[in-house]
Amino acid sequence: MTRTDTQASRVDPRLDLPSMGVHALWAVWLATTAVLWSGLAMPARVGAMVLGWALMFWNYAVLHNHMHVPIAKPRALKWVVSRTLGLACGFAYRGYYLHHFNHHRYNDGDGDWGRRHPGEGALRYCVRWALTPWFWPFDAVTKVWGACKTRGQKAELVIDFAVVDGTLLALTLWQPSLGLSLLGTLIFTQTCIHYLNLAAHLGADARERSRLAVTSTSPFYNRWFFNAGYHQAHHLKPQTPWRALPEVTEGLERQGQLPAELQTDVSPISPAWAAQVVSRVGATPQATPGTST
Question: With a threshold of 0.90, does the pTM exceed it?
Fold first, then answer.
């Protein structure tokens, strides 16, 4: 094992309590909203969905890390958490897992299933990918089904679609306004999630290992989103626990694998960076990350 691997193992607990806590907040929100929904006035329902969007978006950081380094090591708990994290973000977990690791194989370059169409702008890309799983999923489903290597993975894929779509269908049949509101919130959340992919690869180049992704050192973003800003380190060492990513990033900088133009202290969720993504993605030449504000 390398020094980094050894240190990473010490910050990789059997139960990642901060991540589990964020996921638990979503579970409490969903249960509470479902129980109280029929008695809530319209402003309260809107507020509940805004809170749900924030928790779903936060849970995506947990889902992302869980795909690489499970937040729960016990086998049965890991299986359950995989399903519920998929539900929290509206993704069939096994399908999204396979789709995400295709992204890591091709790093947003040729062969990446989630790559932008030539000349496609940020808004169209985000909306297209947010709507695709719900309204025209056939191409994506064919790809992830073909990527399943075992019957167990195929069974999980079927179960995950049943969990996500079945829960939404059950809630819609029970209380139509709740089910449809949840679907709309999930679609909006997924639009924001796909924006993160654009932000994390703004100006990157899949052909060069030193330019696979952008590194954000924003203290706020990394503190609350489990070091998601250290994206170049994540792409080079995707199985590194999130707690070890700052140290890995320091090592990459010493090795000259962090170009200055792909580093910023701006958070990907800041208006400054979002404005650059929206205005420059799809333009020529590609943009570089935002400057400090």
Answer: yes
